[in-house]
Task: inverse folding
């Protein structure tokens, strides 16, 4: 029979079999190309987003030079360049009455020349206003908090300036009068919330996973609970927020208020959003993650160990306590890290149950009992949203939002990397000890 | 002299064991109760949401006026955003999954997973921020450019990889990077040259296209992960027989693996749909929150979740707005639950 097969005639597509082989090869090349394009796009998206965040999040802290624009009509504007739109520049000049009211829009046609005078300085007033001058040492003038000779800085000087601004923003104590309180309150609020949530969710989640693995097994109750865990994982986070608002804040919180704090009504104590309800809501949100991860860790332990322990007369509880749980420690740690990573990124439910822009009083302070679960708090993810949309001065708010976003993403990535490391140690250990 | 056979009373082993057995049993029961409490808490959490909604809504069966139209608009907005997002994300996710499963080695697979994990880990607040502040101004006048990009860049990448195929066959790991380089070059040319700026007009920078893009970025890792899982199973089942019969990998993919994995891939799309329907922050920040019912992607939209986030803090408990919003929550819950259930059924069927 004349078949192309591997002969030269076949490779050239002269016979029908050879034509099919060539079609297959062309199709394969096209498929490889298309699928590689998809993968490359994922890389572009991931890398692009991180690079954009780093650039936009760190740029506001780099000292901008003070530029003098000479306009066509002879006047001069001294300030720093903030934004470059299609055909216009937005320059920040002297603030008149409040910080942020000195923005000027200059059209490209108007500008005759621009230069950076080496003696131009930026001055920060105590109420947060900025003004720009040529020369002169105004540090002794009343009302000036700081003088920045930006154009005269060397690269090392700029680096030091950058570091100082970054440190000031990150640890609070922001420049005088500027909006916002720096990132420290948001970070502290986030960490307190996450800690409280962990105290609630970890014991419950581990208990549920233990019950699933040891007592329920694959019976009806076990399948029911596992189904519940999977369904819970798919519920949108805002629905948890509604549950938190309706059931916890109004329902239980209102009840506590009527019961214990009736004399303070109608000012709510527990009947409004606060740390406790937010932690409880996030605990319900992250419960499926914890249960699934811990149960997965427990099921990795070879069954022979459990059977041997039972054969030697230990009860199921003792087997659990002395044999299984110690081996499941990496899984428990991994579950905790994943829960924290999920909680740090969940902003929507918190908008309903207690996060605010400026917490009037920190939920942790030096007054007994040191932790005040009924108080409101700030959150890093919420700071991103609120700086971007609600801040009164968009040209300052948006860069701050990017700085908060950078910190948030860095935190989440570190957590996920830690979870990955713990997971890898789990797998290595499983490979090492197989009985 | 004989040694007494009976042990000393202080070491009465039998009595010791007897006493310990009681305390062990008690501890066992306590431990089991604790574990059962945990499991009960999980069940309670699952039931809490629908039960709470029903308890709040059922007693007075009155539906406030205008709820129907309002919810209709919101549901339409949610579906518009989600469907557009999945339409954009599905090809990308599927392509990435196909490349990972079918055309790369396990080493490459393990190297690319962190990229997808990175994409999946980015909080949606951050995606919303980028869409709102960076993408929106650019996209406002460049929708036509986007369409041209979507047509030209894949064509350029595919063409270049087909041309360089003989060279790359020896180095399969370099394919995505060649694709990356060619794609960036082609994209740079299109964006830099850009004679189509302003060709397609939009009223507002915050519109359906922007939301679809941002939601799509969030959905791609989910589709890729679930799709890769499904494809791997179908691939392992069919590839040996296909290669034995002389098919190329593409022919096996096209005629055997993809049809076998079709229901699983639909499940992946449904999961992504459910996830996008419940997504709040991106839609809140990038959609403009305009409550209009329009199928045109250039118009804004308002979704159920964004409405909840915006209106619920100000709603008085028990009032008409409260009831309407709780009904909206119920609709959202049922929608995402249905998507997840359907996806789980499809996956169970294909496995």
Result:
């Amino acid at each position: 029979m004349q078949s192309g097969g591997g002969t030269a005639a076949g490779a050239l597509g002269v016979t029908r079999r050879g034509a099919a082989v060539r079609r297959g090869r062309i199709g394969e090349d096209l498929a490889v190309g298309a699928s590689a394009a998809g993968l490359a796009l994922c890389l572009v998206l991931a890398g692009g987003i991180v690079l954009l965040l780093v650039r936009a999040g760190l740029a506001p802290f780099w000292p901008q030079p003070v530029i003098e624009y000479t306009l066509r009509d002879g006047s001069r504007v001294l300030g720093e360049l903030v934004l470059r739109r299609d055909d216009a520049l937005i320059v920040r000049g002297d603030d008149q009455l409040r910080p942020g009211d000195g923005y000027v829009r200059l059209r490209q046609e108007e500008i005759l020349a621009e230069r950076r005078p080496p003696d131009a300085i930026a001055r920060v007033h105590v109420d947060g206003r900025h003004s720009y001058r040529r020369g002169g040492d105004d540090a002794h003038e009343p009302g000036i908090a700081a003088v920045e000779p930006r154009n005269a800085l060397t690269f090392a000087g700029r680096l030091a300036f950058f570091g100082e601004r970054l440190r000031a923003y990150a640890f609070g104590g922001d420049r005088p009068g500027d909006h916002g309180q720096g990132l420290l309150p948001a970070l502290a609020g986030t960490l307190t919330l996450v800690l409280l949530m962990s105290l609630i969710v970890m014991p419950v989640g581990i208990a549920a996973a233990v019950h699933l693995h040891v007592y329920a097994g694959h019976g009806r109750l076990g399948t029911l609970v596992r189904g519940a865990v999977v369904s819970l994982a798919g519920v949108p986070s805002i629905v948890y927020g509604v549950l938190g608002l309706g059931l916890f804040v109004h329902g239980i919180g209102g009840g506590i208020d009527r019961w214990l704090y009736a004399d303070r009504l109608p000012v709510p104590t527990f009947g409004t959003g606060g740390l406790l309800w937010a932690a409880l809501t996030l605990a319900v949100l992250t419960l499926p993650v914890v249960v699934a991860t811990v149960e997965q860790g427990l099921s990795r332990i070879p069954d022979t160990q459990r059977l041997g322990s039972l054969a030697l007369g230990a009860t199921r509880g003792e087997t659990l306590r002395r044999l299984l749980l110690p081996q499941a420690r990496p899984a428990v740690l991994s579950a905790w890290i994943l829960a924290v990573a999920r909680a740090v990124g969940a902003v929507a439910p918190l908008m309903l149950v207690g996060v605010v822009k400026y917490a009037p009083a920190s939920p942790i302070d030096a007054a007994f009992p040191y932790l005040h679960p009924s108080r409101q708090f700030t959150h890093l993810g919420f700071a991103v949203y609120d700086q971007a949309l609600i801040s009164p001065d968009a040209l300052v708010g948006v860069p701050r939002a990017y700085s908060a976003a950078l910190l948030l993403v860095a935190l989440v990535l570190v957590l996920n990397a830690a979870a990955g490391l713990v997971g890898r140690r789990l797998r290595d250990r499983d490979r090492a000890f197989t009985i | 002299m004989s040694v007494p056979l009976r042990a000393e009373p202080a070491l009465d082993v039998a009595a010791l064991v007897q006493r310990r057995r009681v305390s062990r049993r008690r501890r066992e029961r306590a431990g089991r109760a604790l574990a059962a409490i945990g499991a009960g808490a999980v069940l309670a959490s699952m039931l809490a949401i629908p039960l709470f909604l029903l308890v709040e809504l059922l007693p007075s069966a009155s539906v406030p006026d205008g709820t129907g139209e309002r919810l209709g608009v919101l549901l339409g907005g949610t579906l518009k955003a989600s469907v557009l997002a999945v339409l954009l994300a599905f090809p990308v996710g599927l392509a990435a999954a196909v490349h990972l499963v079918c055309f790369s080695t396990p080493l490459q697979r393990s190297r690319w997973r962190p990229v997808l994990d990175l994409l999946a880990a980015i909080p949606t607040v951050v995606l919303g921020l980028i869409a709102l502040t960076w993408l929106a101004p650019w996209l406002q006048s460049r929708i036509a450019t986007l369409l041209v990009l979507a047509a030209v860049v894949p064509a350029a990448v595919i063409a270049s990889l087909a041309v360089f195929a003989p060279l790359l066959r020896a180095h399969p790991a370099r394919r995505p990077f060649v694709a990356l380089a060619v794609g960036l070059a082609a994209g740079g040319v299109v964006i830099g040259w850009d004679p189509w700026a302003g060709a397609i007009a939009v009223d507002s920078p915050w519109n359906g296209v922007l939301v679809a893009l941002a939601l799509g970025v969030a959905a791609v890792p989910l589709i890729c992960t679930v799709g890769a899982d499904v494809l791997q199973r179908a691939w392992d089942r069919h590839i040996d027989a296909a290669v034995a019969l002389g098919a190329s990998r593409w022919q096996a993919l096209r005629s055997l693996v993809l049809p076998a994995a079709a229901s699983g891939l639909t499940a992946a799309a449904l999961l992504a749909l459910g996830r996008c329907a419940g997504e709040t922050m991106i839609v809140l920040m990038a959609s403009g929150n305009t409550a209009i019912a329009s199928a045109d992607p250039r118009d804004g939209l308002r979704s159920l979740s964004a409405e909840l986030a915006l209106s619920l803090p100000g709603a008085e408990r028990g009032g008409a707005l409260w009831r309407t919003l709780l009904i909206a929550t119920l609709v959202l819950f049922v929608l995402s639950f249905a998507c997840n259930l359907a996806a789980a059924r499809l996956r169970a069927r294909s496995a």
Remarks:
- Residues 16-58 of chain A form the longest helix (43 residues).
- The first strand of chain A starts at residue 67 and ends at 71.
- Chain A touches chain B through 96 residues (CB under 8 Å).
- The CA atoms of residues 127 and 177 of chain A lie 5 Å apart.
